[in-house]
Amino acid sequence: MSKQAVGGSQPGGAYSPGIIAAGRLLFVAGQTPTRDGVVVGETVQEQTLVALDNMAAVLAAAGASFADVVRCGVYLDDMADFEEMNEAYASRFPDPLPVRTTVGVNLHGFMVEIDCIAVLPD
User: Fold this and answer.
1) Separation CA 25–CA 77 (nearest Å)
2) Which end of the chain is more exposed for a tag (fewer CB within 10 A), N or C?
3) Superfamily for domain range 3-119
């Protein structure tokens, strides 16, 4: 299988922001609410939108958009923030919405992280 790295956001560790595999599948690493290494946003809604902005940059670098996303994983520091995250998240994705799994995890210094898989347009 061939794979190609995709940029678009600045990784905080030893990983690629995105990988295109098999020519059409784009795997986007977990995007956090950071810009230039600094956490942006005081609320989970604000942080969700920043994480999605970072995701949009990786998608765009590969020639995709939110309309091409088929699966997302959302990681919340506090599951009590679900409704606020969901409202911000829903504002970015067109129908049909991607499948999604949301789990509570211990994040370090931010409230939300989001990854996705997209199918690149023909």
Assistant:
1) 28
2) C
3) RutC-like (3.30.1330.40)
Cβ neighbours of residue 27 under 8 Å, at least 6 residues apart? Answer: 18, 19, 21, 115, 117
Are 58 and 86 contacting, i.e. CB atoms less than 8 angstroms apart?
Answer: no
Per-residue pLDDT of the chain in tens (122 residues, 90 and over written 9): 577 778 877 777 766 777 788 789 999 999 999 999 899 999 999 999 999 999 999 999 999 999 999 999 999 999 999 999 999 999 999 999 999 999 999 999 999 999 999 999 98
Residue 9, judged by CB atoms within 10 A of its CB (0-12, 13-18, 19+), counts as: buried
Residue 16 tokens read as 């690629």
